[in-house]
Amino acid sequence: MKIVTWNINGIRTFRGGIKKALDSLGADIICVQETKVTRDLLDERTAIVDGYNSYFSYSRGRSGYSGVATYCKDSATPFAAEEGLTGLLTNHEGAVGCYGDHTEFSSEELQLLDNEGRAVITQCQNKVQTVTVINVYCPRADPEKPERKQFKLQFYKLLQYRAEAILKDGSYVIVLGDVNTSHRPIDHCDPSDIDDFGENPGRKWLNGFLHSDKPEEDKNEEEPDEESEISETDPIHGGKFVDTFRYFHPTRTNAFTCWSTLTGARQTNYGTRIDYIFADCQLAKDQFLGADIMPEVEGSDHCPVWGQLSCPLLPSSKPPPICTRYLPEFAGKQQKLSRFLVKVDQKSVQSERRDVLPGSQEEEERRENLNPIRAGNVSGKKRVLTSDSVVPKGKKTKTVNTSSKPQGSLLSFFKPKLTNAVPPTEAPVRQCEKILSLDEMTPTQNSQKASTTRENVSSVADGLPEDTEPIFEGSTQMCTSSTTETCDKQVKTKHSTPQPSVGHSNSNKGASLVFWKSVLHGPPPPPSCKVHGEPCVLRTVKKEGPNMGKQFFVCARPQGHSSNPEARCNFFAWVEKGK
């Protein structure tokens, strides 16, 4: 049996066809992370692949985020499968079970930990005993969001409880996926650049989760591929699981699975190893034949990792209920309208209050829903929403328009415009002529028609485009002969269509070009870096702080170790203001 894990950074990585990509990996079980697909975006081409059966977990709080999936060949069809680690998402037969001790978690914490679509568990049968595969995409601890560190550690703890509970029940256990933590200094491109490398909470958790045979410096450098002896019952080195890659390659360096795409670090192999296949000690010792990384496979900022086992799997005659081929939208059955309607108890919704786990994605989504408009309202009124009006999970609050302006009629969009009746080049001139004729009338006639004239002038002014400046200011001022010429010139300048003239057109284009060049002068010319003498690239600070939005120049080469002459040098220069 061959098993593969790969963070694909979006299901669209398989642009050439999902079946072709899966077949190219040559594995019986393929676990992918960061699919970035939710249930409503899952299409049949992705869910139903000929020769495979698939199992998905989706993010329930944010679209295009997280998500994992496990594809099993029909020859390795599992007999049990479920989504999540807590069991709260399981309401069907064919579940894996064995959930471990949850006394350290509140019910709200458990629900939020499974709310981001980070785990799928499948269970297969071989000739000896069952093999359970836990496919996980562990959270990333964003340094700008300290609350996510606690969320990540809670997920680690929940994962360990579940894996050890299944192992205790008598099954072999494989935990694989993107763990988002490099374990040892050998798994990091530049560990000396990180303060207190070993004090990282994620690395401390890995130290307790994984079995450690002996200190790294005592290993034989002459034979890097020599298998390490492990003992499942050794109390000194703790841990019930083994990093299979390090089991077969204990001292291999520069073996990374993730690189930054922003800095082109894959070209210089300046990365980290954060994708793993963990197996319980007995399974690794008795059944694993090999494990390695696949850096030659591109398409994502991660590369696949594979593991080979000697035990063949016995396929189940029928996939478990959460298999995507049984989803109503893919099962070929007509759906009822009632399926899309959910009864909600409004009283319980309004009275519901709960303390959410720090850093959960649902909390962030809720804040966005509760405060959709950050700027002040024009009318001075702003609807204030409190946590008492929180809607059920997965539902967004409806933003109410509090503007006092009445809603317009649909018919107003079909009314003819005023400018259609009178050509825009003639209307103002005619109006001026009418006003001039008032001077020839008697005062009585003037007083009778003054109001009518003012109304006509205002109506014409209203009908002009926004960029036309009003010519008539004052209620009783009349155009004189001199102002008539000025009026005509202004109107003709703004509204009349000039006769085609090559010389005039070229001069206008030239003046326009000079104007736009003075306004949009483009980026400043890049300087050359001091080491390589090559043009630098322009970057912008996006991190919040005093320098946010400022631009700077750095060496254009990909990021790499300081000892690598082909990597980026340390050239740095701020862009001066006004350039």
TrEMBL record:
- Positions annotated to bind Mg(2+): N7, E34, D178, N180, D301, H302
Q: Which domain of life is it from?
A: Eukaryota
Give me the comment on cofactor binding.
Answer: Probably binds two magnesium or manganese ions per subunit.
**What Gene Ontology cellular component terms go with this record?**
mitochondrion; nucleus
Q: Which residues carry the site feature described as Transition state stabilizer?
A: N180
Q: Which NCBIfam families match?
A: xth (TIGR00633)
Query: What name goes with this protein?
Result: DNA-(apurinic or apyrimidinic site) endonuclease
